[in-house]
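Fold this: Metallophosphoesterase
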Amino acid sequence: MRPGLNSIILVVFLLLLDLYVFQAVRAMVYMSLPRVRVIAYSAYWAVSAICIIMVLLLPYIHWHSWPAQLKSYLMAIFLGLVVAKLLAVVFLLIDDVRRGIVWLIQRFVPAQSTAAAEGTVNGISRSQFLSRLGLIAGGSLFGTLLYGFSNKYNYRVHKLKLAFKNLPASFRGLRIVQISDIHSGSFANREAVVKGVNMINAQKADLVLFTGDLVNDRADEMTHWMDVFSQVKAPMGVYSTLGNHDYGDYYPWPDKTPAGHSDMQQKNLERLKQVHGELGWKLMMNESVVLEKDGGQIALLGVENWSAIKRFPRHGDLRRAYDGVNHIPFKILMSHDPTHWDAQIRPEFPDIDLTLAGHTHGMQFGVEIPGLKWSPAQYFYKEWAGLYKAGEQRLYVNRGFGFLGYPGRVGVLPEITVIDLV
């Protein structure tokens, strides 16, 4: 099998990108010792050649059969390099545009009036300054992504207290632990995951709620983790829902017909439902339960994945889950995708007090410090991490317990949410 047109286009793109960024590398080490220049040039082109060769060899190396963890690391490094170079290109383009403008001005204005345009910054030319700045920015981004590999099991407990006027008095003080997006198929460090589960149990929750994406694609990804996650316990129970990945839509099932039907995929979904039960979790499939305590009642609703974004499945039936508990004064909903909140929950079900979601992972990359909360996720999702409020309704978006795609976390760490109702 020969490389396809897409592979050839990608290789051409990579070559052009490498050639353009190399101009900055060459400018940066131009005045260095010959040996330093040889090392810099050789290292740059060796890494670039490896990336290009990998793309060309993809049709021959049975990539899909490689271990999932190895693939995720290699893909993350490859994409990290590309994104880092693209970031450097931004600065190089600024310099090229600047030099182009200077050249045009010099064609029509006496040279002495444009001498300042080619001035220096801290003793180096503007071109050298922008080239170095671009390489530093790109290198810093790539280094940050590599550092993020060490954070994927760095679990953080987020605690918050929520007050609701209509919460029955007997439920004041109820402690809920929310976890989401386990993605067991991505795990490789058993000791670290056990530590995370121990952190969940250490919160001494009355109720544990899991808001979807137990696996990446296949139910058998849970085989080696059953004894770990079955340890998640709570006096009032552990309840769960399905996320978009749980349906197996992103896996190349061998028996999938042109119309999109696969018996293997359907059996996989049924097996995953059984897994929830074997863990001791109550899977909520567009249904509700009434929780009682000292004469008070609250309703817990759980729906299948429901997204306002077309590329994600919409199997949830909130009306079905809601029927029968409309008279209960306080309602909590588990719905995997936070876009459900604005699209249907708020306008059609204004008496659902608290919605718990996940899905976004906070893009596993961002900045969360006092006074600054940013992630690329915010350009795709209005609600992407943490607490949101509209009127008397609240939404909490969990940042995810696991990881997917990029095997790391930068700034947005894996989360265990603790909610105390007061």
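Residues 5-110+123-149 form one domain. The mean pLDDT is 93.
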